[in-house]
Design brief:
With about 190 residues, the chain is of the alpha+beta class. It is about 25% helix and about 40% strand. It has helices at about 5-30, 55-70, 130-140; strands at about 45-55, 75-80, 85-95, 95-110, 115-125, 125-130, 150, 155-160, 170-180, 185-190. Strands 2, 3, 4, 5, 6, 7 and 8 form a seven-stranded antiparallel β-sheet that branches.
């Protein structure tokens, strides 16, 4: 087969290739994500339960200290602020410029003592972005601890504190997480010999 106008043929080939790439990108972008379900509570008799009560200010300091230590290699620069909601404040670099980002969550305690964060809003600069798109992007492209799972369909982040690895195998469970009343109570399950 002899092509009379090779530039036209090459242009149409390149156009078709670009369309295929765009279709594949959007196909992957909107592909369904796996379902995430709350985990069952395991009862054990080889530990002692201790109750710990704190306030928003102190817990904010603890969370941010933990994030600073754990997220050294993370490209996101962020911190948590506990107000009436859980807020994730940070910056992301776009085209070499730092842009402010804010994620707002409504916390809910699950029966087994873990925490579900229902995302309410996400803004970059002054632009609000679709929540499910952002959660899917974070889940796919950032290294999250095993005990943090994202369900982008339901717009939830599950924080499985019961699976968080702590020194001396201590486990954490949330008893009360009422930010409006500043009532934050946790149960520590400390192993005994």
């Amino acid at each position: 087969m002899k092509v009379k106008n090779k530039w036209k043929f090459l242009f149409l080939t390149l156009l078709a290739l670009n369309l295929v790439c765009v279709l594949i990108f959007f196909g992957l972008l909107f592909a369904p994500n796996k379902e995430v379900a709350p985990k069952e509570n395991v009862v054990s008799t080889d530990h002692v339960n201790l109750s710990v009560e704190t306030n928003k200010e102190d817990l904010t300091r603890v969370i941010n200290s933990f994030l600073k230590k754990e997220a050294k290699d993370n490209p996101l620069n962020y911190k948590v602020l506990l107000t009436e909601r859980v807020m994730l404040l940070g910056t992301i670099t776009v085209f070499g410029k730092e842009i402010d980002m804010v994620m707002t969550f409504k916390p809910e305690v699950i029966e087994n003592g873990d925490l579900r964060l229902q995302q309410e809003a996400f803004t970059v600069g002054q632009v609000s972005l679709p929540v499910s798109f952002v959660l899917r992007y974070i889940n796919d492209y950032y290294n999250l601890p095993e005990w943090v799972q994202i369900d982008s369909k339901k717009q939830d982040i599950y924080v499985y504190l019961s699976e968080m690895k702590m020194k001396s195998d201590t486990k954490v469970a949330v008893e009360t997480f009422d930010l409006s009343k500043d009532e934050l109570r946790f149960k520590l399950q400390v192993p005994i010999d």
